[in-house]
Design a protein that fits this description.
Helices cover 40% and strands 11% of the residues. The protein has five helices and three strands, in the order ααβααββα. A three-stranded antiparallel β-sheet has the order 1-3-2. Helix 2 crosses helix 4. It is elongated and about 45 Å long.
């Protein structure tokens, strides 16, 4: 596994997790964190790559050799997109021999989704 220390998305200094966008205005730091993630997800190739990796389920991983054929892009371009997803804190990877295996970081998608949800007040209608 990677020895890189990753920041937990959606957690404030007090350890509180997943305050939604509608709970309170974002501070500058949190807005910057979320913008980095949304920028990474704003590209269709990266969104598809994340989906392909995440669809392996909890603890599942996928070899880059399985990802590359799904796109009409060069291997270095795919690697660049995967690097941006890693830098955004969405996935991690491990090299095994000549291949690199990727997985979604535990809970990261749930925390991202929670940041977009709004709480329903009693009696509210959709």
């Amino acid at each position: 596994m990677s020895k890189q220390e990753l920041e937990v998305l959606g957690q404030d200094a007090d350890g509180d997790c997943c305050r939604g966008l509608a709970a309170a205005p974002l501070d500058e730091e949190r807005a910057g964190e979320l913008a980095k993630v949304f920028k990474a997800l704003g590209d269709p190739v990266r969104l598809r790559l994340l989906s392909m990796i995440a669809s392996r389920g909890e603890g599942g991983e996928v070899c880059v050799c399985e990802l590359t054929p799904a796109f009409e892009l060069s291997q270095p371009t795919i690697s660049h997109h995967l690097k941006l997803l890693r830098q955004a804190g969405l996935i991690d990877c491990e090299r095994r021999g000549t291949w690199v295996y990727y997985w979604v970081l535990p809970g990261v998608l749930d925390r991202l989704a929670a940041s977009l949800t709004t709480s329903q007040t009693a009696g509210a209608t959709a």
